Amino acid sequence: VGQAAWHKLGKVISAAVTSREAMHLALLDWIVEQEDIFLADGTKINGRKANVRSDTHGVLGVVGDGYKVFQNAEAFDFMDAIVGEKLAMFETAGAIKDGKTIWMLARIPKELRAAGDDVVNPYVLLTNSHDGTSALRMLPTSVRVVCNNTLNLALNRGQKMGFTMRHSEKLADRVADAKQKLGIIVDRVDQFGEEMQALASVDLTEQQAKEYFQDLYPIKTDKVLSISEQAEVLIQDALMDAVLAQTARSMAKDSVNEARERQADRNQKIVEQLIANFHNERNTLPGIEGTAWAAFNAVSEYTDHQTTVRGKTDKDRADNRMNSVFFGAANDQKQVAYEKVLELVKV
Question: With 50 as the cut, is the pLDDT of residue 235 above it?
Answer without folding.
Answer: no
